[in-house]
Amino acid sequence: MTRTLVVDPGMSSGIVLAEYTATEPFKILGQWQLMEGGLPQFSDWVSNTLSIPGLDVVVCEKFSPLPRVFKLRELEPIRIEGFLYARCNGPNHSPVPIVWQTPSAMLIAGTNNGGSTRAQKQAANKKAGDDMLRALGLWTTGKKDFGTKDANDANAAMKHLIAYFRSIGHGPSLEVINRV
Questions:
Q1: Among 11, 27, 144, 161, which residue carries the largest CB count within 10 Å?
Q2: Closest Cα to residue 84, out of 41, 141, 42?
Q3: Whole-prediction pTM
Q4: What domains can you pick out in the chain, each with its CATH number?
Q5: What CA–CA distance (Å, rounded) separates 177 from 145?
Q6: What span, in angstroms and rounded, lies between the C-alpha atoms of 22 and 156?
Q7: Are strands 13-20 and 2-8 parallel, antiparallel or unpaired?
Q8: CA-to-CA dists, residue 49 to 30, 31, 77, 150, 168, angstroms
């Protein structure tokens, strides 16, 4: 059994915990939407909810700064990345590998029918990914599933999980994913 933690970090963070075997597709063990708490909330969540040594791999979106002026809160993903790195490489357990993904990795159901501008194509790709999660029964909403205003980051983490299975070529999970 391989236990995988997927994180979409930020002031609000999305988290998915899944497991799978060589012959069985993924099973979602939990999904969380943390709202506006940044690293302190994420750290508390890890301390209260998760045992890092019990994981086999962590998948995390790697913050890619754009060349513009930043607000300090926009750099929160970097703090969470550092926290994950430190916890996954702690002195009291074997290292847990981290797979870093670009933000574009979560564009899991690409489409070429998104219009002519970059923004239109990105919107069409996001919608296609959202539709894929809905078809797989993996779409979540903030109010209903987490009691939060939205579940954008939890859904982004789920997309990163699907991208991870594609990147490692996990056949049993891909069979499920590719049915939609």
A1: 161
A2: 42
A3: 0.90
A4: 2-177 (3.30.420.10)
A5: 22
A6: 25
A7: antiparallel
A8: 10, 11, 20, 21, 27
